[in-house]
Structure formats: structure tokens, C-alpha cells
Amino acid sequence: MTRGKVTIIDGGIGRELERRGAAFKQPQWSALAMMETPWMVKEVHKAFIASGASVITTNSYALVPFHLGEEQFRKQSRNLATIAGQTACAAVNETRPNTRVAGSIPPLFGSYRSDLYRPERVVEIATPLIKGLSQYVDLWLCETQSLIDEPVRIKSLIDHLDLSTKPFWVAFTLDDLHLNCEPMLRSGESLADAVKEMVNAKVDAVLFNCCQPEVIGQAIKATRSQLAHLGVKNIEIGAYANAFSPQTEDAQANKKLNSIRTDLTPSSYLNWAQEWVQQGATLIGGCCGIGPEHIAVLSKKLVHAP
Asked: For residue 74, is pLDDT > 50?
């Protein structure tokens, strides 16, 4: 198929902060850097911008009770989300002002854990993050979603808060234990159902993130096919894989740092990204373990190559 214009998204903020020696430990994860070393968060944003990212993501992924704890979440979540938005904007203003800021809305109950999902708490947890970020972001990125219902409810909340004038992207994380099966969410829900519900929710993009690159290509093809079946042409497709090994159904993100695959060098990651673009993706970046050096190669080869 003919390749569309590619937009480069940044890479994984949390592991880049850890690599640079920022305040970083379990259970707070990257939220600790937001509290203690926000200047290092800004430096990571600037590094991704310098590498060619035209969309950077706020460091708000860990601003949920799963990482902060219930008491700290109640006291600090909205303020920390505001600081996360301000920090991203400061990085943009100091480097390339036309860079867009994506407001990260994380899985509210823990990465990969659809079994921990509590629909009755979505509004309670998502509202302070959305309100804290809203003044500073150009689009919403509801990411690492393991099941269909959560992003649907978050989109409804944003509509209710009258903040739906900004684009709304949803990134699903896929089951990456079964590489030769039909692509599905970590909840076991089908990708076809997920895409159909995203169309109904009027999202602007469907992406795949925080799973192995090996499962993403098939998901892109299935998404493109489903969108064509539904007669939808205005939803972009994107991908930003992680550099982790496959994650089990009972993965506990707060227990340890996952090891980073040594085979996903910038050049090998580019090979995957080029496949995704050929398959129809126009939004390309990286997740955990994909750093500025990877993004620089993506930008050079996917956007600026003659």
C-alpha cells in the first residue's frame, strides 16, 4: 500500500529516566521523578524532541493509586498531573515549539492487569489527571489499555468534561505470549471488537503499545481490515512497542524492573517500524526501553529519508 505521512512519537520515558539516574523506584515508578527531579523529566522530553519526535508524552503514566498509593493519590495526583503538563510544555518551548504534547492517561488499575479493572472507579481516578493535564496538552493518549471498557469510559468522561475538542488516541497492549494466534487484547477480547468500539466512541487513532514488536504487525493489518469493513477512513493507526520479553497474565509491574532485550537495537527496531508503516501505520514511536537513540533512527529513516 502507499505509505502515508509518518508522525514520530517519543519513546519510553520511565526507563530513560531510570537509565539517567533520576529518582526512580517501585512502587512510584516514574512518578517519583515528577516529585523529586522534574528537571530530569524535562531533559528526557528535550532529548526525545532533539531525536526527532514531533509528539512527546507527559510523564503522568504512574500518577495513579497503583503506583502512588491511595492517600498520596488523593492528595497529589492533580497537582502532579499539572506539573507533568507544565514540564512537557517547558521542554517544547525550549526546543521546537511546534512539537505536540500528548496527555498520557495510563491504565488506571495497573499495567497489563485487566483482572484488576474496577469500572466504578474510572471517573474518580481519571478526573484529576484529566483536569491537571487539560490546559497543557494538544491531544489525549489513553495508553497501555488491556481491555475495551476502560478507554470507552475515559472518552465518555472527557466528552462530559467538555474537553473533546482535542484528538483522542487509544493505544492497546496486546497478548504477546501467543505469537501465532489472532491478535487480541490482554483481556482476551478480540481486536475486531476493540476496533468496532473505538469507531463507536469516535476516537481519532488506534495504536498498539507496551507489547513485543512481533505481535504488532498482525494487529495493524487486522485493524486496517476492520476499519475498511466498517467503511471508516479517518482513524489513524499507530505502534510503539516495548523492549520487554513477553508479559504473563499475572505480571506485576511493581515487583521488579523487567529486563530489556538486547536484540532491539535502533537498527533492528527500525526494521519493525518500517514493516508497520508498510502495513498502514502512520503514528510510530517506542515504549519501555526504546530510547532517544531509537527515535533518532526512526525520524531519519521514516520522515527525513529522501
From this structure: yes
Distance, in Å, from the CA atom of 300 to the CA atom of 306, rounded to the nearest integer, reads: 10
List of domains in the chain: 7-303 (3.20.20.330)
pLDDT reported for residue 139: 98
pTM: 0.94
